[in-house]
Amino acid sequence: MKPVAVDPSTTKRASAYALWMNAPNPMLTFFKTMDVTRLVRLSRRHGVKFNLLLCWCIGKAAAEVEEFYLLPVGRELMRYDALAVNTIVKNRTGEVSSCDVPFDGDFARFQADYLRLTREVAETCADHDLTGRMVIGTSAIVDADIDGAVGMNSGIFNNPFLIWGRYRRKLLKTVLPISFQFHHTQMDGAHAGRFLALVQQNIRTLALPKA
User: Fold this and answer.
1) pTM surpassing 0.70?
2) Residue ranges for the chain with pLDDT beneath 50
């Protein structure tokens, strides 16, 4: 499973490629506060990690937006056939390592892969990278109470990236501010907005399979 370089002029991103590949800062960041009440309840009721559930909802939303399957890498526009969701893991030394979890739409398989791979990464302190998949980055800074974060534009790591801190309890619900950074060549604001709306929809409708 390898990504394939495509001619940008043959894709829906042709004009975006022409406009944004040479821009000094082609990254955009959106901020959205999600209602994560259902995820918190499901996490407690079923003993499933909150972060795992949120990463699942993110992967499921991305799979429904075709722009996620194209990514500028260097000077090329690459087409991918599959996705992965990255999570940052605190390893046994107290530092952090990176873990890519494959996403194919099967919750049981995603859950098993997430638990197995994050455990291996934590124990070995070695990153788990999936180069054949378009990776959606995530970072949960659970020790901080933040409204969002803006990443850097390195020109090397152009992958979409979501960051969040601690969730917040309101009177009748629990909310989580999330920031979403993306490369303008990959998608426009409308695509990013649709993706975030789908994440929220997936959170509200998530039903875990019976054991």
Assistant:
1) yes
2) none
